[in-house]
Amino acid sequence: MSDNHVETHSLIIPSDSESRKALLGFVKEIDVQLTLIDAAKDHIKAILDHVKIESTIPSKYVKKCATVYHKQNFVEERSEAEDFAVLFETLFSNPSTET
What is the number of H-type helices and E-type strands within the chain? Predict the structure, then answer.
């Protein structure tokens, strides 16, 4: 162990108060963001619960639409679904290939 850090088996932890204060600040900033993420997830769940009451569309499809809309990746999603369909049909449409 030297004067400016503490070593573990895989980490070198700074021992000076300025570096530790900065690390603590980073952890606290991440904590705030994780709290916001948790709140957003709870809100999304509440919306989807409302969808179940107000709509005949299954909430999983509404969530998928919202996710694709947010990511703006409809073309990629469609392509992956088509690839999956071809793969699945190729593997399982011919009973002689099943084991």
Answer: 3, 2
pLDDT in tens, 6-24: 777 889 998 899 999 999 9
Q: Are 51 and 57 spatial neighbours (Cβ–Cβ below 8 Å)? A: yes
Cα→Cα distances 42→46, 48, 54, Å:
6, 10, 18
19 is written with which tokens?
A: 């570096």
pLDDT score of 21 = 96
Give domain limits for the chain: 30-97
